[in-house]
Amino acid sequence: MPNTKPIITAENLVFQYPGSEFKLDLPQLEIAVGAQYVITGPSGCGKTTLLRLLSGIESTQIGEITVKGQRLSELSNMAIRDFRNREFGFIFQDFRLVEYLSLRDNILLGVTLGNKIDPAPAIARLDELTNRVGIAHLLNRRVIKLSRGEMQRVAVCRALIHNPSVIFADEPTANLDPKNSNVIWELINSEARSNNATVLAVTHNIDSINRFEHVLELESLMETTVS
Asked: Among the four 9, 14, 174, 179, which has the fewest Cβ within 10 Å?
């Protein structure tokens, strides 16, 4: 019998950056286990902010976010970080890589930092993932020596290496040509299907949007209650 319980719920979210006129006001949102969503809307409407809120990177000012039955507001900063490292994979627009470390060390950073996760399964997956995106031959190279497209692929592998429950993908193919973009989307989709992981993605690319069964138009979400 399929699992119908949502993996993420958000209730009455209100968030505003200090000194900014922008305000995210989201009455309700439910994200299903194992489903794949793309969040759309014009630049500046809050798509990246919503990903950061749902993943606990940003703290809500008003409202409640619950992930796998855990209210994020009840966790300390350290506990949220550990929860993110264990349950989430996040592909950032700006990559968030450590330039002086090798590709290998960057990809494994989340599972070795703090010793909260057994690194053995991730290490065993390293060659497979990097081969699929064409960077296995660069594993010992420092990130600072890479092109932006190669950095993008490192960031994707880092997000997927520990089989996360939720994959947050913020423009994960922005620096890639169509061929490599297709490889990345196929990898994200296949990894999600294999692990029954949920995907929450942001992209402006129409071809990429068409890959998703669930399209969440953010401005519409902020106007009405949605589940």
From this structure: 179
